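Lay summary

Proteins are chains of building blocks that fold into shapes. Our project writes down both the chain and a compact code for its shape. Here are two examples, one after the other.
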Amino acid sequence: MAARLALLLALALWAAAAAPALGAAQAHGRHRLLLQTTKALPQGSNSNASFAAPAEPGTSAVFDTPAAAEAANPVPAGQWESGGDTGAIYIYATLMKGGEVIGWSNKGDKDNGWTEDGWGTAVYNATSKSVELLPKCGIHDCKNAFCSGQVTTWDNKMLVFGGHGPDFGADITGFRSYDSGTGKITSTQMQSGRWYPTPVTLPDGKVLVIGGVAHNGQAGYFDNVKVNERDTYDNPTITVYDPATGDFSPDSRDMADQLEAAWPVHTYPHAMVSPDGGLWVSAGSSLVKYDRSGPTSFERVLDLPDRPHAPWSYPQTGQGVMLPMFPPYDKIEFLAMGGNVKDRATPETPASDKVHKIELTAGKDAKWEELENMPYPRVLGDAVTLCDGTIGVFGGGERGIAGWSPKPYFYRFKDGTTWDCKKLCTDVHDFLYAPTIFDPATNKFTPKGALAEHMRPRLYHATSILLPDCRVFVGGGDVSNDRTAELYSPPYLFKGPRPVISSVQDSIKPGESLEVSYTSTDPVTKALFLRTGSITHSMSFDHRSLWLTIASNANGKLTLTTPTYMVVILSNKGVPSVGKIVSVQPLGTTSSSSA
């Protein structure tokens, strides 16, 4: 069976002064919104590809509109609110199809901030600000899933690769599958240990798992890292997992040359599927294009220029994101931000404020363009594509590196609470409470001080993720013992009343129309697809988004040509609605379902 994808459908209204070309019809009252797929699009990834992706029905979700988002007056800074206790330290955060955010911490004792059972997997509901702890060791399956990488599937499962534990043990070689619908967790072992690997979903639904190291902590220039013993401690291989069969391919060295050259600043590489079914991989400062030469094999076909910057993979962790793509999706740009100002960074090394962009699809002509600096130098932040196609950057600090410090640290949070850390404390300093937002249309950031600040530092092992209601969940940080969430309402939520979705199909096939009934007082003029989020260690797996073509917008019906992902519709006030989640089936399927 071809693998399939669950997609998050969210409606938003966006200002478009030049709307006539998009068919800016009146949108007052109750309307039916049609989103139409096209079979002419080439097959793409169910989470990463630029075009049509496999997907199948799942369960749609409806969320209540936050009260803050109903404000009629603009709030240019946005607004933070407490999200309450998350039950576990959200080192990992993944949005599931029901709208819940699942997260987990490292295996540890409760006296150092972990949960009562010592494992800590929580399911958080941002609407009710409630949390449920999973029983029986949670996602870990009693084998430590810390230091892994994770992606989601069409049928509401989360796949977790790697972990933290004894060499070649069931922790570091572990694979776990979590079914959000049933709560069932299954596990097995991979061929080799993978600590800090990157999984990426391929066009046929298989999952490529890239790199990592074979032994805990063997990355970066820390004192314990045996940089001269790479052959023993590194794992520059790849493997491909097939969700349909549950099988892994044998490890191969198809990407080993790039990963070995980037050692030891090479874990959690960025991986982005290309329109032709290959992918681009960024590790350290390097950037390489690979073609898929077989079901489980890849061929290095082009070396793109290195980012003109110090290596920015862990622990010199910068932020990277593919910018929203425009039809016909033949131009794909990658944005790289921050990191450290120099290689071999230490806890005293300043963060970088540099920003670079490259057109990946330019091939041999690709080159990095330096943009204006970020308003704050930032290491260890999280980049989130927001519902209006801008990029929010959250957390981190202006000095230091990722990792645990052996030095104790006393935290005094802005909300008046404190934490006296005795061990496993912060190596990042000059904490950043202020986010910033990058606008791809102007290549500029919001200026320093323009956005509201959160109350708690979000440092090593913190996470940020877009919610279906277009707010941002920010949580975690084990170095500060943080089992809380803060919820950010971006400025677009304060520009007017929100549209409301009343019904939408649960799934569609390529070539079918997606019909959304909604009410709105403003004309719909734009639409954006976004992949649902899955993040850890500042790495958002399968992260991408694309603008859709509005084929027609008349008589209260809007037709869009859609590849896949999470769809956001926008009008002249930039106010998003609450979202629903929809599955898009693969080419060749014969059935669909309705909600």
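And here is the second example, written the same way.
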Amino acid sequence: MRHISAFAALAFAGSAFGQIGLVDFDGTELGLTGYSNPSYTYSGSGFGTNASLVTPGTATSTWVAGDSFWPMSRGNVGPNNIGMPFGISDDSVAPAAGNSLFANDTLGFAGTTLGNNGFFGVMDILNPANSAPISASFTFNIAGFSNLSVSIDFIAMGDYEATNDDAYNFEYSIDGGLFQPLFTSSIDENLSQNYTMDIGTVVNLGDPLFINSVMINDVYQTLTASVLGTGNSLTIRFTASGDADGMGFDNLRVDGVPTPGAAVLMGVAGVVGFRRRR
């Protein structure tokens, strides 16, 4: 029986495909080894991706009202001690922290259905504190894994402008190599789509946002892209440019398959665990 168990464990480990990295902006920083974001300074626990801690007391920012490039939630004000930007928050039924009830609200994807769930929110990155495209980087440990992929939940609402250089792009780099495209945005100025506010108002806006040719709306959509190559460290760089329109993303996840050496170690660990339970 022990021989059969060992074989089964090794076979499973060699073919298992699973999560090796996750940032959910609610405190989970699985496999994360580094994070950088110049829009705010952070002094709390972890790397600074937890939206509930990117707030005064553990984070500060000189960005003004209506602007953001950081983890946020409806439950707390931002590191600039100001409520969620109106272009992100749906305050038609209940206001986000720092905001006021506005029944006639016609812009914002972060309504009550999101609760206090954290996400990375982007709004009006061209402002007195920042005059150029801005990037945030997430670095994960991928040692011992191959067949990598990245999944992200996207959400957005706005009248985006291709001529105004509205862009939200993700790239990846392995072990400090050249950055390669991962998720690329585009704007179709010949289309429009409907968005629904919490209060029930349906808003039609032109020029929707696309990510990897998928139209993004005010309901989270999960997109997945492959990462070519393997190594020890995977850096995902998110760069935003443009003005006035909001978008968000959540659950930045890295998946992969253990390489043969790692699979053997995982299999042996599984067998040891099995024997201890006999």
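What can we say about the second shape? The two ends are 11 Å apart (CA to CA).
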